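Input.
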Amino acid sequence: MGKLDGKIAVITGANSGIGLATAKRFAAEGARVFMMGRRQAELDAAVSAVGGGAVGVHGDIASLEDLDRLYDTVRREAGIIDILFANAGGGDFAPLGEISEEQFDRIFSINVKGTLFTVQKALPLLKNGASVILTGSTSATTGIPAFSVYSASKAAVRNFARGWILDLAPRRIRVNVLVPGSTSTPGWHGLASSAEQNQAMVDMVKATTPLGRLGDPDEVASAALFLASDDSSFVNGSELFVDGGSAQI
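Output.
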């Protein structure tokens, strides 16, 4: 018997990395998973890899119309949501003095606006007692050079959870923030502009993380499963760090 038998889960940013690893774990534990991603070919491959009746919806969380299509599909095919993993996000480097308006608008549109409306538009479908998981970042609590816009956007996500647990208290909907450290995903490695920069990033993580390595997406998925399941029934408004200790020192 799986921890999520009969549950309906929605995961954004499910093309690859943490989102895909979590979709696979949720499906293995008995959930039917609706997966949203921006790149159609990758999304199709991810849905095939998850199996178990998984459904893919192509779209960008920064587009309210795309979110409407996502939830129209869920409403039509499942009717309810037990678990919402608002995982999609993104960012890139720029030091103060070189930050552009375009970069600011793009990152906040995805990470802040997109996360907000991913959750708000799900409300009519979310069951009372549902679990909402937001993907945060260790950068929301630690300083990283040239990464301040992304860090600020993830600090906003953390504070969404603080307010939303009060707004949703009458419905007993839990909202928690999953906080990965540096995790070996295409998105993380894609922050580097060259192989040399990527190696420098890996070396820095090894030097500043007590466990001395990058995380694996499956390790983050295990934590997402905990927050999605009844094992975390009294966990609400929390930050669960899956970071090898990097933000704890």
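The radius of gyration is 17 Å.
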